[in-house]
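Troubleshooting entry. The earlier prediction with iron/sulfur cluster gave an output that would not parse, so I re-checked the input for stray whitespace and re-submitted. Clean input:
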Amino acid sequence: MKPSLLDFTQKELMEQIKPSFRVKQIYGWLYHHYAQDFDAMKNIPKAMKEELSQNFVVNPLRIKNKEESTDGTIKYLLELQDGKTMEAVWLKMKDTQHDTNGIVIQEAKYTICVSTQVGCKVGCTFCLTAKGGFTRDLTAGEIVAQVVALKRDNDHKHNRKINIVYMGMGEPLDNLDNLAKAIEIFKEEEGLCIGGKRQTVSTSGLSNKIDKLGAMDLGVHIAISLHAVDDKLRTELIPMNKAHNISSIIEAVKRFPIDTRKRVMFEYLVIKDKNDDLGSAKKLVKLLTDIKAKVNLIYFNPYPGTEYKRPTRADMVSFQEYLINHGLLCTIRDSKGIDISAACGQLKEKTEGEL
Ligand code: SF4
C-alpha cells in the first residue's frame, strides 16, 4: 500500500518533495479543494504528478455507502486501499441561525466523529464493532482522510470551523502514535487548521495511555467512556476494566494537563436496569469530586441481538437532575441518527452483512 499525501505534515512533505512552493500548492489542493487525485492539481506540472504518483496516493479511501438521518446526521462507510472498511459520522450540532430578515447570523455547527482503527481490541459488550474483533490500526493519513472526505461530501469550506471527536471505531489511545500525528496534521495552519481545543479524544480508559497523551501536550480535550460507577458492572461492559479500573482512570484524568477553562467529559451510556438508578448517580457524584467534569448521558441505542435496553426518558431526566443538583454539569445527548445505524459498527455490519 502506498502512503497517502495526507500522512504527512507540510514540513515532512517539504523534506520529500522539492521545491517547497510546490508542496504549499499541493497542500492547498489537499485541504482547501479536497483533491481526490493528482489530476485535480491543475497548477502542478504533469511530470511532477507522474513522479509523485509512483510513491504516493492522494486519497487513501472512498465513500462506499452512506445513510442520512432526518436530523441531519450522516453515517458513512468508508473503504480503504486494502478493501477494509470503517465508519465516520457527520453530526449537525446546531442549525443555521437567521435574523428576522432571513439573514444568516450564525452558520450551522458540525462535528465529525472519526475512527482510529478497523475493528477494536477493547471488546465492549454493548458494541457491534467489538464483535468483529480487531483488524488493524489506521494510519494518520487514513484518520485525516475521513475529515477531508466528509467535508468534501458536504461541501463544507475548508475555513469553516468543525469539531472532531475520536469516537468512531477503535480505541484511539491504542493507536496513539498515528492519532498524535493526525492531531498535528489537523492543526496545520495552511491545512485544515483545526486547533487542539476543537479535537476531543474519547477513550474507554487506558489509564497509562491517558498519561502518555497528556505528556505529548497536544492541547486536546479528553472524554472518558465511564459508563459505570463500580468495577463489577464496568468490567461486564468493558472487560479491559480489569487492567484499567475506575480508580486508575480517575487518577490519570486528575494528572492530565488541561486548560483551566476546559472540562473533562465523562460519557455515561445509560442502560435500562443496569446503571440508570439514583444510587449510581450518587456514586458518580462522589467519584468526580475534585475533577472539573461534565457528564454526558447517552441513551443506549439497541441493535439487533443485544440484551441491553434503552432507558426511559423519565429515568434519564431524574439521573440528570440528581447530578445537576449536586453540582455537576450534565447534558443528555440527543440521540442523533436514531433512525439510521448510529451506534458504531452498525452501518458496516448492515452493509457487509448484505453483500
Ligand atoms: S465501544 Fe469503542 S472502545 Fe468499546 S469496543 Fe466499541 S469501538 Fe472499541
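This one parsed fine. The mean pLDDT is 91.
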